[in-house]
Amino acid sequence: GLQETKLEKGQLQEAYKILAQAYLAKNYTDAAREVVVKLLEVNPLYAPTIEEEPPPFVQLVNEVRQQKSPE
User: Alpha carbon 45 to chain centroid distance?
Assistant: First the structure.
């Protein structure tokens, strides 16, 4: 997987972002959600805006973040 490679955090975040958006474009919502979980593990502070990213992706990131919020 991507974790074994020697990618920097920024590269890994970008790869997960592109992968999640590709899954969303194909309506693979569950796969996209799993990738967003990994993206937020790499960068817990990642917060896309609808000016920069597609609204469905921004919404998914926000949903995953709310589900993962610390207890």
Answer: 11
- In angstroms, the CA 35 to CA 19 distance is 7
Phi, psi of 11 (to 5 degrees): -70, -40
pLDDT in tens, 12-65: 999 999 999 999 999 999 999 999 999 999 999 999 999 999 999 999 999 999
CA pair distance 48, 15, nearest whole angstrom: 14
Q: How many alpha carbons fall within 13 Å on the CB side of residue 30?
A: 0
Kindly report the CA angle at 56 between 19 and 21, in degrees rounded to 5? 10
pLDDT attached to residue 68: 78
